Structure formats: structure tokens, C-alpha cells
Amino acid sequence: MQRREFLRNSLLGTAGLTVLGGLANSAEAAKAPIKLTILHTNDMHSRIEPFPDNGGQWAGLGGMARRAALIKDIRAKEANVLLLDSGDIFQGTPYFNFFGGELEYKLMSQMGYDASTLGNHDFDNGLEGLQRQLPNATFPFLIANYDFSKTPLAGRFAPYKVFEKQGIRIGVFGLGIELAGLVADKNFGQTVYLDPVAKAREMAAQLRGPEKCDLVICLSHLGYKFDSSPTKIEDRKLAAQVAGIDLILGGHTHTFMDAPEPIAGPSGHTTLINQVGWSGINLGRLDYEFAHGTKRGGLAQASVLPVREIIG
Amino acid sequence: MLHNPIRVTLAALLLGLVITPGCQRAAYVPTARFAPVTSQPVAKTQAEDPAIAALIAPYHDKVTAQMAEVLGTAPAPLTKAPGENPLSNFVADLQRERASKELKEPIALGVMTNGGLRAGFAAGPVTLGSVFELMPFENELVVLDAPGPVIEDLFEYAAHIKMAVSGATYTVTFDGQPKDIRIGGQLFDVNQDRTYTIAISDYLATGGDNLSFFKALTPRHTNVLLRTAIADHIRDLTKAGQPISARVEGRVKAN
After folding, report:
1. Which domains does chain A have, with CATH numbers?
2. Complex prediction ipTM
3. What is the pTM of this model?
């Protein structure tokens, strides 16, 4: 433990110096940067307990009580933590068949999730099934491209939310996948799917503009990529087509990404995409530092810290 | 886990990314700092949070108790085996019955492959847990409307592995071809201009288990999970005082 602490401190020191030496002037260096830790999951699929320890592919991995302890440990060390999820909380174990998602929402609330979006499986018990469980969630479901106005869920979901941490404004919005063909018609009813690209542009403009956000995050259940359907919208295409998103936390395709993928967007903006498999096998983590910069903006550098080895 | 500060520091420098925050209007400039592994495994070495574990415990006990609910009794094991077997006959038959009830029309055929069923029933009490083991997947019972040529493909596939099809009988020739296919007792004629209804899982209906000839068809939903259909059928049998049983009854004849 002491050794880990030492490594952590020395690494932070090294990386910090690299960045400061690279771009900051002495006045900026005098002000300590503000740090934000983003933790995230996707497609947890009712995996309350770890996978059975039976020699299967994911044997013994995951488990919400373990994840809670890991998150608590990080919260003890980091001042500013955002805990986010990218949908498909429901379906996959008897816990969902028996309790309809009640326990999933209660546990996420107790773990202090800040926001999630809606995945296709979150409709598996219909709009009524989703509505029944909403009181168990103390966190919002953000979704910008589903229009629920003709459904019993009208007015229940915001497109985005702005979080403030030590003066830093973080805009988070959600995008969902096309439901027709994926979800039984009766389960999504009159929910209208809207073009995610158009909605994402609207969100980025709103969050970068009037909301004056320093960081814009998209919780996406669109999927990382679809090799067999070249025209289907996915996170990579979204990042390439929409300016102003810093980070897409993805889901749906259960993609295990070794590292966030940078995608060059229009007007030179780079968007990072991350997705961490499914079933709570992994907890995603990205750390951001906010320098007191100019309003003109400019080059910032991202460096890499070994989260896994520090937390261990 | 390895702790190699030199390697990690080098990685930190080498993996540096350049980010341009496009239309940045806010006061702060964000800098992403992430690990070579930004997915933290939630593994066995990670201790549990006791408060969360305590919240889970009563639900766990209820799940365990419900899984132990006895739905019915099997006097003899229902096993799966290559070719026609009691387990596949049992499931394919109840698929037809349930789909017919849901869609309020007769269903000609029921198809379930061996691969679609994960474990048989042992002799004795059959619990909800046994049904979850038999059908762990969230597969929906659906209905296909298959024209003659697709039915022909189905029986060619079936004959190759001597698979039974609920609602039909056929004979496998010495070279593995189907002949004398009878659906509902009627001799099948590929040239007849009609469709046949098939009760099947959505997994198989969309081409799973190499049933690719179904892919072109549009499944009709029953909105009933196959697992639910199986559990309900066993409950109904028990209510009617009947055991869980099925047998090999010569749906596939070898020549």
C-alpha cells in the first residue's frame, strides 16, 4: 500500500511536470489545476453479483458490492468524482426477472451515480416497467434523442445536466439507439427516436454556449461501431461528425477498449471514446485536469496515468 | 500486478495525445489524463462494500428461494441427445402450443435445436432454477411464415443431423436427404403456393445455429420469453395433475 502511494505520488509529479513544462506559463502554474475523476460503466445487465466462479469466460468477475468498494476508495482519494453509466442497466440475471430492476437502481443510487442514459434493454418491461422503477433511482436518466411526449413518461427525462465541481462546469447529455426492430413495439410505445447527430450538435452548442461548460460528455448507447452496417450511426461516426464533444462514454456493443480512442472531429476538435465491456466487469476511469486557461482555448495535452496499478 | 515506474512513466510520455477543445468558451482548459488501462477490472481481489452487500442479501435470498420453487415433477430424465430426443420434443411442442395461444391461430411446426437448450431435466422435482439452466437466454418465442422452399431448406438441415421437427414426420434417406415429409399428417409439396407457420426462438429465427435460410423472413412477435413459456407449461401440467414427460416417438425415421 505504501509503495503504491509512493508510486502514485511520484507519477503524478512526473506527469504534472511534463504538462506544466509543456504549455503553462508561470502565472498559470502558480494556480493549482483542478482535478476531475470520471468513473463509468455501461451495459451492467443486472449483474448484481459477480459471474459464477465456474470456469466460464468471465468467471468470478464483476459484482456491485466490489464495485462500490472500489468507487468508495477512489472517492476517498479524489475531491471531484463523477460516476456515470451508459445504459442497459436492465436484463441478464434473475434479479431483473424477479424484481424488474428495483435492486439495480437502488444499488446505483447508494453508490452515488450522478447520471445514466437509457439503453434498449431498459425498455424490456415496457414504458410502465421503466416508470415503476424510476422512484428507486436518485440519479437522472439523460436522453436527448428520444421524444417521450406522447407516452406516460412525458417530462420524466432531461436531455442534459450540468454538474459543477469547484467552479468547473461539466455538461453531460445522453443519446439512445434506434428502438424499432431492437425493442418489441409495445415496449417503447409512442417513444419517438430522433436523429442523434442533429441532437448531439444541438446539445454541444447549448452546453458550450449558454451553459458555458468546460467539459462536454456524451453518454451514448449508440454502440462503438458496426462493421456489418456501414451506414448505421455509431460513436465513431458521431465523434467525426459533431464538434464540441470532449468525451463519449459508450455502450451497447459491449466493447472492451484497452484505452480511450481519440477521433478527429470537424473543426479540429478531438473527441475521446471509451467503453468498458459489460456486466460491471470493469470500472472505467479518466482523470481530467483543468488549468486556469484563456477563454480562447488552445492546445491542451493529455498524458497517461496508470489507474489500474495505482488502485490495485 | 506489476509496479514498474519506469515503464509507466515512459508510457505516460509516449502516449501523450493532443486535444484541441474546438469552440471552447468556458474559463478552464481540460486536460485528459488516463491510464494505459482505463478499464479497472472488478476482480476477486477487490473487497466488497459491506453496506452494498447487506442491501443485496435479502434479494439474493429471495432469488435463491424462488429458483428453488418446484414447478413440476419429471418421472424420467428429459435429456438431449443427437437426433430426435425427449427434451427437444418437449420444448418444440410447447413452443407450438404457446405461440398458437398467443397468436390465436394454429401453428404448423415447432423448431428447437440441440444447441438452443443448455441442460436437460433430471428425474425428480423440476425447479424454476432448472428452467433457467435449460434456457438461460432471453430468447423470445416468435412465429415465422415460411414458404415451401424455406421449409425444404429446414428439412434438409434437419435430415443432416436427424433433428425432429414438432408437427412433422419425415424419413432420412441413406445419403442424408429428407423424404416423405408430412406436416400435420399431410404430405409436404414444395410446389404448393402456401406458407407454413413455425414457432421458434428469435435467436434461431434470425439465423442462429446456422439456420440462415430463416434470415429473410420477418418474425412475428409473441412478446413471451421462451423461458417463461417453458415454466408456464410445466406449471400447467402440474395443475392438470400431469408429469413432465416426453419421448422419442419416431418423428424422424432412418432409412
Report:
1. 1-33+291-312 (no CATH), 35-284 (3.60.21.10)
2. 0.82
3. 0.73
